[in-house]
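Standup notes
- DV: blocked on the single-chain target, sequence here:
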Amino acid sequence: MLHHILQYLPTLDGLSKIAIFVVMLSVLIVLHEGGHFLVARLNGVHIKDFALGMGPSLFCWKSPRTGTNYRLNLFPIGGYCLMKGEDEKKEPDASGVLVSVSSHDDSYPSKRPLQRLAIIAAGPVVNIISAAVFLMASYSIVGISVPTTTIASVDSGRNADVAGLRAGDTMTKINNVAISSGFGFITRIEKSTGKTLHISYLRGKQEHVATVIPTLDGGVGRIGFTPVMFAVRYSLPQSASTSYHMLVDSTTSTFAVFGELFAKPKATVGQLQGIIGLGSFSGQFQDMGWGVYLQFAALISLSLGIFNLLPFPALDGGRAVFICFELLRGKPIDQKTEAYIHIGGLVAILGLMVVISCHDILSIIASHKTP
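- DV (later): unblocked, structure below
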């Protein structure tokens, strides 16, 4: 049993890619919680804890100026910004009597509804802004690594090697259909798992034909080669325009997926990617260059922002709904009632994450078993 589990553990190279993925997620979490932190501080709210990760603290530093505990926790997934009054703890007053801190001027519950709404919305908004910044940086500063139709290297023993393809060969056609770009060539292979492809290529001035059958690897079809890449950098207006259209398209797609999740949960859950699935794909994006990886980070940041804006208990959007009810009613909803509703929502979200993670693991194992 142990042998079967160990064969799916990542190699050293895989571990380095996972480490880069964890760092990227940590940055997105810090940006999200930093949004809450900044707007809370601007509104005079005392921050008790600002933490990266969950579980027991590995490191804690208390600011002598603000009294905020900055924590690095054991499990590097998630984080939180705990504001005064959120945990409903009582503290002794001047006479030593325990009183609720909710009435203190620097507590979160003491702030006006619109102030609290701004604090809650700040996290997702920062994630969405960060997505735009990452996209523009990927296009105008780092540059996008674009694949050509020429092969840089061939993996020994893989399909391309067995079919006779070599470094320096330039692909011209697939099944007699001309190849217009490196992206088009790779996309066709990725979508052709188990199908026979006749690839025409030039070696020098002579044309040859190789017959290959892409096999499933990482959820897509592959034949085992690396293309020659070249970097393309956009001007600032081009990067702004391209980033805008990509954000609009990605936002529309993300809302469509979340809509399907609520409308058809059983059919949609299996199509979602959790942390494990995203970590698996992360390595593939890293292989394509930092420009493409910044786009990957941007799309995750955008999804994180949109997801947290959904009006579901335990999410920022769910908390915002309660504040909107307060504005309509003229008085807040009972804190304990709201807390119980958020706990129920958190349990539902954690259950969904477990289901998605199990699906991710089974998909990875299945892809490794495919010949």
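- Follow-up: The chain is about 50% helix and 20% strand.
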